[in-house]
Amino acid sequence: MRLAFVLSEIGSGLRRNLSMVVSVVLVTFISLTFVGGAALLQLQISQMKGFWYDRVQVAVFLCGEDYGSQTCAEGAVTDGQRADIEAMMGSAAVEPYIESYEYESREQALGHFRDQFRNSPIVDTVTADQLPESFRVRLVDPEKYEVVNELFSSMQGVDVVIDQRELLEKIFSVMNIASLVAVGIAGVMIVCAVLLIATTIRLSAFSRRRETGIMRLVGASKLVIQLPFVLEGVIAALIGAALASGALWGVAHFLVAGRLAREYPDTAFISTSEVLLVAPALLALGALLAGVSSVLTLKRYLKV
């Protein structure tokens, strides 16, 4: 009997305040979409770090004509200097640090450049003479880059030693900033959602003050009186959270897995399984925000 009463009160409240309920759903949907997006972006960053850091390389660029570094004062790298550098690569001194290395000629560098920038208008303007020779080095421990840098940067014929991980860190820092921006927007939207839920519950309690007064007179418990109001806010928030989870799943399925993963097969992207991990947290967060907001509002505006 009590369950039927509570359900009827919930249905009545949702119908009376339909426009406000829709507003709560939309605001919750937007705010939790940003929250989930920020969480998925952090998962993407962690996955990319684990993927790329295992494949990160150190590039030892060799001297060309008219290079400005002190080790290139004699001009382009000579065959002897190149041989010395390669001998150092295979020496016992660097064996604990270097897992493997590969020489890349100017022609190979041009081929890689054209493949990477095949859609760029500058691809046909670059020639092999404009690109440096290099050794591509994979380290046993990427954290030991400084040791390798000290060994090779002072050798004649070496222009510069670059840790590709530094380039990745710049990309990840931009992604982290984007994640923080999403969290900031989500925070603002969550505050709006909480205020809107509180307003909705307040209006619902005010519109049914006569019913609640009669219920107090007949001895209804505090829980029975307040529960319909709390569940109204929770239901609206759960619908918004479900919509946010569905939107994130659609982005992960159709955009990330359906397009980006095919266009960039060498990059590790998140999948819909990560969305399924985030979705329960969004539902729980939506229900928690609505529940707490509703209870605090009822304590102030609904005296039982």
Series of secondary-structure elements, N-terminal to C-terminal = HHEHEHEHEHHHH
Percent in strands: 5-15%
Strand sequence of the main sheet, in spatial order?
A: 2-3-1-4
What portion of residues is helical?
Answer: 55-70%
Mean pLDDT across all amino acids: 80
Q: Please work out how many helical segments DSSP would assign.
A: 9
**What is the domain tally?**
2
SS class: alpha+beta
Oligomer status: single chain
Query: Residue ranges: pLDDT <50 for 5 or more in a row?
Result: none
Count the E strands: 4
Distance between the termini: 21 Å
Radius of gyration: 31 Å
Domain ABC3 transporter permease C-terminal: 185-302
Subunit structure: Forms a membrane-associated complex with FtsE.
Transmembrane segments: 21-45, 177-203, 223-256, 276-298
Main location: membrane
In short:
The chain contains nine helices and four strands. Forms a membrane-associated complex with FtsE.
Secondary-structure topology with pairs:
Elements lengths: L1 H15 L1 H36 L3 E6 L16 H11 L8 E7 L1 H11 L17 E6 L5 H9 L4 E6 H44 L1 H9 L4 H42 L8 H30 L3
Helix pairs in contact: 1-8, 2-6, 2-8, 2-9, 6-8, 6-9, 8-9
Main location: membrane
Subunit structure: Forms a membrane-associated complex with FtsE.
Subcellular location: Cell membrane
